[in-house]
Write a structure and sequence with these properties.
InterPro entries: Bact_solute-bd_prot1, SBP, WD40/YVTN_repeat-like_dom_sf. The protein is about 20% helix and about 35% strand. Among the domains are: about 55 residues, no CATH class; about 300 residues, 6 Propeller (Neuraminidase). The strands form 13 sheets. Strands 2, 3, 4, 5, 8, 9, 10 and 11 form an eight-stranded antiparallel sheet that branches. It has 18 helices and 50 strands. Helix 9 runs antiparallel to helix 10. With about 800 residues, the chain is α+β, with helices and mostly antiparallel strands. The longest helix has 19 residues.
Amino acid sequence: MIYLCGSIKRFNRLRIKDNKFCLLYVGGIRVKKIYMPSGRKGIFKIIIITAVTLCLMAAFTGCSKGGAEQAENKDGYVYVPEYKEFAVKMRYLNEITASGDKAYAVAMVQDEGEEDTYRTAFYEYDLLENTAREIAANLNDDVNVNSLLVSADGNLVTAVNQYEYEEDENGEATDVNMTMELRRISPEDGTVINSQDLANVITNIENSYIQNMCEDGQGNIYLCDGEQGIHVVDKDFKKLCDINADGWINSMAASKEGDVYITTYGENGMVLKKVDLAAKKLGDPVEGIESGSGNVNFFSSTSKSLMQSTANKLFLIDLETKTSEELFDWLDVDIDGNNVDIVGELSDGRMWTISREYSETGDKYELVYLTRKKASEVPQKEELIYGALWFDSLTRRAIINFNKSNEKYHISVKEYGNDYDGSQLAQFNADLTTQNCPDLIGLTGLDFAQYASKGIMEDMYPYMEKSGLNKEDYLENVLRAYEQDGKLYGITSQFYIVSTLAKESLVGEQTGWTLSEMLDFVEKNNPENVFMYGNRESIFRFCIYNNIDEFIDWESGKCSFDGEEFIRTLEFASKFPEEVDYNRDEEGISSRLRSNKVLLMENTVSSIQEYQMMNGMFGEKVTYIGYPNNERNGNLIQPSGGSIAISSKSKNKDGAWEFVRSILSEEYQDNLVEDNYGWGFPIRKDALEKQFEKDMTPEYYEDEEGNQVEMSKTTWGYDDFEMEIMAASKEEVDAVRELLKSADRLSGNVDSQLTNIITEEAEPFFKGQKSAKDAAGVIQNRIQIYVNENR
């Protein structure tokens, strides 16, 4: 199931819906539907795999400066990557652990001749030789392996879930029962040496999941239950104690010294704490360790206490001196640190890692060896700088692929961030006008119209023409959104629509409205609330911030915040609370929309499936009326592949264009469709039609009589509503195609300085200290000064 709110934390259970389908849940969200053919228990035929993580991949992720000419260590050395194919063809790598030069993995694999049929298998992997041997683990039917380690005695220890159920006379699954076991397995022949029912170890076993597992220097095993509990057993699997982490545990690792550490969130981000078995509690946070709120994991090390991998860098940690040594930036070795599953050290001095890239057709894995070499021995490329406030994941992926394939150029990244005092934004703006300017400008989080008017970005149309790229091959409305005076100052590879939805029975088929028309509509219907969770800030965002260009003309410098519409908006917003109680008990959004207790809903159109769900959730046909503006054209384009511009001050514009051209290429655009990577629609017309064709293609399963039965492609849910999504009809595709064409303006990324001015100066009106007209006058004066200073 895809939900538009929330996130996936982990795989935590397997539920049987009926005798044919297993539903794999992740953090309470269904993400897999698995068909179990009769007589083939233990072998799962995957029908659908859809995960929320794919839609979140376009979310902003932190990155520090990388280096095409890789940043040298103090001793003048760099790490050089070597990419290898796995010796095992697998669809999913469920678990992996390592000891010395060998790794042990649990993977979902496909046997030769078994089309679309997969089974779970154990492997021993020789990392020096890049060869694999399957271990006959003798897994029982309906077993799910969810954690794995190599014990000091050389055997494997694994936690497995086994599911048993009965079938009623209709073939429906009943009396589903799950047992969880800890098993010690011989890596030679898969023999189970000893086992323990974890119901004897974990009290609330039904709601537990062994997320992490480690062994200390005395052979004791630490089990993390996926929440806040650590359960410790001795080498014979006898329970020793429970330890409460007082917070969600992110990761767990055993140090070279034989102690076990966990990471959890502290006041300033992720912190590392030692598990004190004698005291049966956690120690204080370890000092000297880089914290953060992103992807932070620790791994065992043979050279130091631990290795620490963040989204950006890899460190060696010395716990005795409480110091960390940076080895390299992941982008310097063309790896996405967010996709790193494990890192290890080999006896020949190399390091190794596994990088996972998510794909609808099955995760893609690379085994990467990292060799330390003198920087003088490594061929250098011309360096391009990509500068942005934030670095989104799709752009990260595109840059990594470009760096790996392009023989002439290498892109490094400078992420400025966006602090509350505006100093980093100020530095970013200053660099754009000096010789420190990046070659490529990331426009995410910026007001495009404001920056396009500054003359700091290169027109891309001449580069398209010179490269043989035809404007006609791309969606004209998306190009128009990045145009100013007929020049193309920016581009994105992928986008979705941001809009306002209402029942067609209430607003008709009109495709837009003015601000006054919207306010008249709301006041006429007088609902309990305009939106499900409406407050002053959301009303301002809806009326003003998403259409800031209605009030500011950056080209002329004219502002109009003292006009009637803005004053009326202030008065309208004053009717809403300052804060919303999101925890109040009330009926869900679908019910409130259907009963007209809520009139409008802000939402996106990122796929045919989302469009189908919205019509189902409203209970009738929906009109995408959009945000209010004078042109009555309020459906907005939101880039999901990052907005990119070329700096007019770049010393290597041709090199910068090479990257832009790569994300506009037919191959790249087709891959967005084939891999279902990212969130939204491609901007090439032919790739978009391939997406629509894919959406309209039915999917089938074979029933017990051998008949082909159409099945849902996935399940979508929002709040209290969910529905099975079938193959799209031609009418639905035509409607979405027209909806995409209707948008030719970018969703506003409003300068925080502007919103701060409005918030500050509107407050006296909301408190009854000023009239709306007086407050609007002050806002007009302050913003006019700001615009004059920043044009």
